[in-house]
Amino acid sequence: MISRQKIDFIHGLARKKEREMAGCFVAEGEKLVFDLINTTLNLREIYCTQEGLSSIQSRRMKVEAIPVSGKEMERISAFKNPSSVLALFEIPKSKEVIDETFEGINLVLDGIQDPGNLGTIIRTADWFGISNLFCSPDCADLYNPKCVQSTMGALARVEVHYLNLPELLKQATAIKIPVYGTFMADENLYTTELAEKALIILGSEGKGISSDLNRFLTKKISIPAYPAGSSEPESLNVAVSAAIVCAEFRRRVV
After folding, report:
1. pTM surpassing 0.90?
2. What Å distances lie between residue 72 and 7, 13, 28, 66, 78, CA to CA?
3. pLDDT digits (tens, 9 = 90+) for 139-177
4. 3-state SS track over 183-215
């Protein structure tokens, strides 16, 4: 039987402060958990109902699961409809940003505070083979439960760095890395010249890109609304924007 103390501990990991103190985060669902087990992340604990245990056995996975009843899974899960598997993974140490990190195209997120959007952008970066994602300190936390679920395992394959963006862009421009900024109305993404190696900044939907980053921009780009001349919506979801921009860069500069 799972203890009250353990239940409180797992629930506490929904908060960033508790995750940082414990050095771990929660992942739920067979697909997500099993995908993460097959990465470089270190599994700390895994809780399974009988259904989850059967899945582990059928996959011949070499993990020591802690069996729980359906009722116990309900008590530790953050879901209204709990899955059969819940796991705790260790938070890996952050890696240093060096010049080689800027190979290919990389995404820079400025003030993206919705964890669902962040997770979707990480998943998008993974799909398009983008290895690094740079976040301002006020972005949502990578290990927020909603973000973890939205990444669908991509968080183990994309390096997410939280750092001072002006310092990062200063470092990039010093070695002649082009910096693109996404805006509502500037050069058309589909007709402007795109570089094979670049940083692409996406700002928050409410505030856009911070003014202190503008001086580092090589080019301002935008995604045109259709049909031309029509009344434009107020904004495009930032995760959708990221997918469109990444697709166009990959289409033209593989």
Report:
1. yes
2. 9, 17, 14, 11, 12
3. 999 999 999 999 999 999 999 999 999 999 999 999 999
4. EEEEEECCCCCCCCCEEEEEEECCCECCHHHHH
Q: Residues 172-214: pLDDT tens digits?
A: 999 999 999 999 888 999 999 999 999 999 998 888 999 999 9
Single-letter residue type at 125: A
Which residue numbers in the chain have pLDDT < 70? 228-234, 254
Domains in the chain and their CATH numbers?
A: 4-90 (3.30.1330.30), 99-252 (3.40.1280.10)
Residues shown for the chain: 254
**Alpha-carbon distances of 62 from 68, 144, 183, 250, rounded to whole Å:** 18, 27, 49, 38
Residue in the block written with tokens 């895994």: 46
User: 172 is written with which tokens?
Assistant: 């990039």
Please, are residues 33 and 85 in contact by the beta-carbon 8 Å criterion?
Answer: yes
How many whole angstroms separate alpha carbon 64 and alpha carbon 68? 13
Give the helix ranges, DSSP H, for 77-214: 115-127, 145-151, 165-174
